[in-house]
Amino acid sequence: MNHSLRLAFCSVVTALGTAVMFLTGMIPVGTYALPAFAGILMISVVAEAGTGWAFSVYAAQSILSVLLAADKEAVLFFVLFFGYYPILKSLLENHLRRIELQTAVKLIVFNAAAVLDFCLSVAFLSVPKESFSIFGYYLPWLFLLAGNVVFLIYDYAVSLLVITYFSRIHPMIKKLFRSK
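RESULT FIELD:
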């Protein structure tokens, strides 16, 4: 794929991802799901243009989301984790051969992002600490533990999406761009 096609492709993905993040202000339950979906779009950029271009798309989409999306908590989720995770996953799985090491690094990154998200949300977005309570018990660590389980499921789902992308969509895009 030549430079112009890469730039156009990445621009379209950036616009689509930013539009998804913009929807977080219109769809209240989208605070968690829409940043994850916007991040999944990075799979196509990594596959078609490479990780360098994917990081550029992530940066552009993050800046545009900060400026345009109404749900700043969703933007924080995207910037701190979901936006770069498919890129990081690709790098880790291509460079670290041991699955145990890959999983450990992924969990460290997720936990760091989750704790940072919690701190920033409470400090700057006025998310009340009481929202992390169950029956009056303050349990953020329990939420973090549950988040780790959900993250492992998410990681597996991303792996399945990558396999599906390469088996079904990548050949069509490759064929489309080769014919130009």
